[in-house]
Design brief:
globular; Rossmann fold; Luciferase, domain 3; single chain; five-stranded mixed β-sheet; 327 residues; alpha/beta
């Protein structure tokens, strides 16, 4: 388990208030992970990387390493292993040293962007995640359902007509309703044309091979019409992270204080594009303290003054730099 010193670093992560705090803690986390995470250390050594003086100079580990390597600090044992949906074949694995760290992260972020869960009813349409098991998203939503302390809150699986029934019952009790749903399930729900105008609907990802892929704009336009609501929110998270970004309007995602997005050149993973240009999404998630906080994803995105957008995924899943580490 973590030493007392590392407990202080955990506290520092969740106490970040400004950019100066972020820069200081990010460099501390980088040094800890280079010293203690063998996979990341060897990757940095293969790059012959200079010691960074800011977060912009920190190298990012290609996310595919979570499929091929055990990414966790030496001397730490995992309490839980989260696995990706595996739609592209082999499933990514995130070895989580302490799920309480994950809870601290997602509870705080949810309160910041969605609200006080104790005042809400939380419903979930996540059938494929439940079927495959070991899902970090299911872990999070299950915890939120329990925190709501309301019997109406639950996972809804087979009968989509239950969604409107539970929604109406919650509204009659004066509760705010939050509905998490994978995109294809929400589109299935649209076929019933329920009136969910007072719900906060959070779509959590793509079609998982069940339907034609749509842009966020296309998807949200269909959902707003089919679910009779003015706005669709989104959650951006992944197996390899312990933090999430939320979009409550216009598809622009915002991050919490210990999470930062950088957009890299698609043909040069060590250079960054200017705001407004599309490139590969790099994520700093300092809550990933005991694995790797600096991850080069396979998503395409762009930054703006308000936040960032997700534009799609790389056509080729191999991100340059993966072959730098020999197993």
């Amino acid at each position: 388990m973590a030493s007392q010193g590392m407990n202080q670093l955990e506290k520092d992560i969740f106490s970040i208030q400004n950019e100066s705090d972020f820069e200081r803690v990010a460099l501390e986390v980088y040094r800890y992970q280079v010293e203690n995470c063998a996979v990341y250390r060897e990757y940095v050594e293969q790059l012959k990387w200079d010691e960074p003086t800011s977060s912009d100079e920190i190298p990012f580990l290609p996310i595919s390493f979570f499929k091929s390597h055990r990414v966790i600090a030496e001397g730490e044992d995992e309490e839980v292993i989260f696995k990706s949906s595996g739609t592209g074949g082999e499933r990514s694995q995130h070895f989580v040293q302490n799920p309480e760290l994950y809870k601290s992260a997602f509870r705080s972020i949810y309160a910041q962007f969605i609200g006080n869960v104790e005042e809400q009813v939380v419903l979930a349409l996540l059938p494929n995640y439940l079927d495959q098991g070991d899902s970090s998203l299911v872990f999070m939503v299950d915890d939120l359902i329990k925190l709501s302390k309301n019997a109406i809150s639950q996972f809804l699986l087979n009968d989509l007509t239950d969604v409107e029934k539970h929604y109406k019952k919650a509204v009659s009790e004066g509760k705010k309703v939050v509905i998490f749903g994978v995109a294809y399930s929400l589109l299935d729900l649209c076929e019933l044309n329920p009136d969910l105008n007072r719900a906060t609907i959070i779509e959590t990802g793509g079609m998982k091979g069940r339907r034609k892929e749509l842009t966020k704009q296309e998807l949200h336009a269909l959902l707003k019409e089919g679910l009779n609501c003015k706005n669709i929110s989104s959650e951006y998270g992944m197996t390899e992270l312990l933090s999430q970004a939320y979009s409550n309007q216009d598809g622009i995602f915002e991050t919490c204080p210990w999470m930062k997005i950088q957009i890299r050149e698609t043909n040069d993973p060590f250079s960054y594009v200017t705001d407004g240009k599309t490139g590969g999404v790099n994520i700093i998630d300092l809550a990933n303290l005991y694995s790797c906080s600096f991850i080069a994803t396979q998503d395409l995105g762009r930054k703006s003054t308000k936040g960032f957008e997700i534009m799609g995924r790389f056509d080729h899943s191999d991100v340059r730099g993966c072959n730098l580490l020999v197993e």
